[in-house]
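Working notes for the structural subgroup meeting. M.R. asked for a predicted model of this chain before we commit to crystallization trials. I am recording the input and output together here so anyone reviewing the notebook later can reproduce the run.

Input as submitted:
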Amino acid sequence: MIERAAPADAGEILTVQRAAYVSEAQLYGDPYIPPLVESLEQLRKAIESALVLKALDGGRRIVGAVRGQLSGTTCLVGRLVVVPDRQGQGVGTALLRALHEQVPEATAFDLFTGHLSAGNLKLYRRLGYRETHRERMDDHLMMVHLRREPEPSGGAPSVHRG
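Returned structure, recorded in token form:
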């Protein structure tokens, strides 16, 4: 089940976020990536000012989350996180699809991920995101920026399963 997060969820979401980003920190050799050093208060403020969705399992445990913030007509997508024991089971896909549905006024959805994050890139491309550009952050990190736009006919981008 996916629903909007409340400020009271901040602690549990922060735990999920840190667990989810440990592998990214290891991949890039940087334990100080922003998702790992974000404070509880910063996350609470994000929940109050942006759309933050949480994914719950049957036992009501938070197993994932994603953030969306409108900037003009573009929804900036951030911090898609899934607990390690539920990764690869469709939680991230469900969260992104729910975000797309919750922000119908958005004409585009923008996000970014690291160039070595193959699983993330595969997920985003499968959901209709296309690379727009790359940005070198330092010697070991290149950010890949992606955008999802509706088809010219006004429909959703096609989703290829397989």
